[in-house]
Specification:
Oligomer: homodimer
Shape of chain A: globular
Largest interface: A-B, 61 and 61 residues
Number of strands of chain A: 11
Largest sheet of chain A: 11 strands, mixed
Strand content of chain A: 15-25%
Helix content of chain A: 40-55%
Chain lengths: ~350, ~350
């Protein structure tokens, strides 16, 4: 099994929650990890967990951290000893197979783009977000924010990336690939999208199921939904906002209610918790950055141990699947590539 | 009070629910209405409601209907006697002040664009959707789908449209205008958005509060959120999908649960219903089409009487506010206009 480089200094709860999460992945699934960051802070946490002698746990010292408020590109070039920079070096050298990156999304994308490098034939990486569905499955939305203004080629390549990801990592034999649009008819939408539709219909590598509207992203109409990074990011963040609003209004209703509401809420709490667990990003761990050489999973800044453990598992699955070679071959073979 | 032309033949529940809704607006708020459509089907419904002799209710016969599956532009030109075409004629002639349009959104936009005509200086109309917030207020998102690929000028004009709409119709003295983006920093996003940011910061007609991320659309950071129609439509429909998913998962949890969950759900039902009422589009009636001469409110195809009554109320408020003149003056005065 390939080792996973975990940026132990990234995110709001670093290094504690990051280290605990990575160690949980070691215990649960025997995934070998390299904890990258300030050794003086990380070593005691590993010791406390009684895992200092584990052959599956390594430490790699890095003295600096790229903060959430720094310009990602500039900080990446200047801080050679930042934990995320060191993570990229470990993958580049072949020591690790993938990175788990909580903290600055911009720094993580920079690490993927410049530290690991693009897959030949791919101009832009894409952030792919796995979304829970009512049927228990998962739909991958990409790009969810890496490229705000991509060319047609990049949108099309997102389909290739999503296809192989769902096939190899989620074991779906023939993933349904959809195109995010504002109507189901072929002629709908903006030029970028109508052109993408035409090209996607022409290819035979993956199963194109046509346009998917925003309201059908979560219904299972497609396993992969392709879009530009501006739309994908706006859509996902609004979904977060809606879920939060519903939660707030419900809590208010209970708080302002009488004994009836309070008793009802107490009785219904397990079902409510079960529901929240199913739409909780922590269950899905993180969003992989695709289109780069080697794996990289971006985690929410607020990630705690459970999210980090699941992200480490996802990173390991990506490292084992060796997606880069497959997508490179497909694009070199003419599917949405230059020739 | 200006009369409101209601397309009684549009939507899934026409003409019954549309007529009942319009008559409810007459009873509740003394709004004069013209029911446009097949008189033979509409007259008995008015009679049944005992309102045949009401001076506030008129019938206007229209023999045809534009269906949801027809090409809106072509159908609009061909079917001169379609109910929505006749509605536009009534406003154009000054007989009515605004339209309530359930049914095909495409036909409604066409009616606004060609039947009523654009406001001089405005290239593209925008669909403005009022969204409920946790604080009890409303945020207007526009464009939510009229122009999938607008030029910069149209995005900027959406700010002017939203400003006057919230000021005049929702009585907010100085509405906060935000720009939908994928980060809060000035340099974030695609060129269309960074250019819009620069121009919005320069003007002094309205209160620009900067970039708003998807997750903050519902928090009250802004009263108006401006975007292109592709992003707006995708965002709104995904929000619908998220709300539906949460509802489905909760119902499942209750159905698969035992006595505890069922009793809890029964006790909590009033609070749950209260919450749903606050995020229910029917409460808000519909989405106005702005940037055109005269008022037009687009309703969801699944609208029932309550949504239609509220849409009629909104249409009346728009007709009384005379928005067209105000936005035309602002644009002619140089705010996001040609000169």
């Amino acid at each position: 099994m390939k080792k996973i480089a975990v940026d132990a200094m990234g995110g709001d709860y670093a290094p504690e929650e990051i280290v605990y999460g990575a160690l949980q992945a070691v215990k649960n699934w025997q995934i070998p990890v390299i904890l990258v960051g300030d050794s003086e802070r990380i070593a005691p946490l590993v010791d406390e967990a009684g895992m200092t002698d584990s052959p599956l746990v390594e430490l790699h010292h890095a003295a600096e951290v790229i903060g959430m408020d720094e310009h990602p590109g500039m900080a990446y070039r200047k801080k050679k000893d930042a934990s995320i920079v060191q993570c990229a070096k470990l993958v580049k050298a072949g020591t690790a197979g993938a990175i788990v990156a909580p903290g600055s999304t911009g720094a993580a994308v920079t690490a993927g783009l410049f530290g690991l490098g693009r897959i030949p034939g791919f101009k832009r990486p894409a952030i792919a977000t796995p979304l829970p569905r009512a049927d228990g499955g998962v739909t991958l939305l990409l790009d969810s924010g890496a490229s705000a203004d991509p060319e047609l080629e990049s949108v099309l390549q997102n389909a290739v990336l999503g296809h192989f990801f769902m096939k190899e990592v989620y074991d779906i034999s023939e993933p349904k690939i959809g195109l995010l649009n504002i109507g189901t008819e072929e002629i709908k939408g903006k030029p970028l999208v109508t052109q993408a539709f035409a090209a996607m219909r022409e290819q035979s590598l993956y199963r194109f199921v046509g346009n998917v509207e925003g309201r059908d992203i979560l219904t299972g109409q497609a396993d992969v939904v392709v879009c530009d990074g501006f739309t994908g990011n706006a859509v996902l963040k609004f979904g977060e906002g809606v879920a939060k609003l519903i939660g707030t209004l419900l809590k208010e209703g209970i708080r302002n209610g009488g004994l009836r509401e309070k008793l009802g809420a107490w009785l219904l709490a397990p079902a409510l918790r079960g529901m929240l667990r199913r739409v909780d990003y922590a269950e899905y761990g993180g969003a992989p950055l695709l289109g780069i050489q080697g794996g990289l999973v971006i985690c929410h800044g607020a990630s705690k141990r459970k999210a980090i453990a699941n992200a480490t598992k996802l990173a390991s699955a990506i490292a084992e699947a060796d997606l880069s070679a497959r997508v490179q071959a497909a694009v070199a073979g003419g599917v949405h590539g230059d020739e």
